[in-house]
Amino acid sequence: MTVTRRILHVIPSLDRAGAEKQLVLLCRDLARDQFDLHVCALTRGGPLEAELRTAGVPVTVIGKRSKIAPVAYWRLRRHIARLRPDLVHTWMLAANVYGLAAARAVGVRRLVAGQRCVDRWKSSYQWMVERHLARHATRIVANSPGVRDYCVAHGLPAEKCVVIPGGVEPLSESETPRGTLLDELDIPHDARLIGIVGRLWPQKRVKDLIWAFELIHMLHPRAHLLIVGDGPQRSKLERYASLMQGWPLIRFLGHRNDAPRIMNHLDVLWLGSDYEGLPNVVMEAMTVGVPVVATDIPGNRDLITSGETGYLVPVGGRKERVKATHRLLEDAELADRLTRAARQRVVEHFSVSRMVERHADLYRELLAE
Question: What pTM, to 2 d.p., does this model score?
Answer without folding.
Answer: 0.86
